[in-house]
From TrEMBL:
InterPro entries: CB, Integrase_recombinase_N, Integrase_SAM-like_N. The keyword DNA-binding applies. This is Integrase. Residues 1-63 form the Core-binding (CB) domain. Pfam families: Phage_int_SAM_4. It comes from the Bacteria. Gene3D superfamilies: 1.10.150.130.
């Protein structure tokens, strides 16, 4: 279940070593990837609360 993103691979490895179900891992990765793509592929470590609020507002108002 490797991706081209080292960050997403790290998240995957982290969750698998902690025995998350694969279904949960896939769901989390999907949400994280959507968040990253919404913000034009900006790394999550460079974002904060404002970006989270903008993403959630988008989900509520647009989706």
């Amino acid at each position: 279940m490797k991706t081209r993103s080292p960050y997403l691979n790290y998240i995957t490895d982290y969750m698998i070593t902690r025995h998350y179900l694969l279904r949960t891992v896939n769901a989390y990765l999907s949400w994280i990837a959507n968040f990253i793509h919404f913000h034009n592929k900006c790394h999550p470590s460079l974002m904060g609360d404002n970006e989270v609020v903008a993403f959630l507002d988008h989900l509520v108002l647009q989706k």
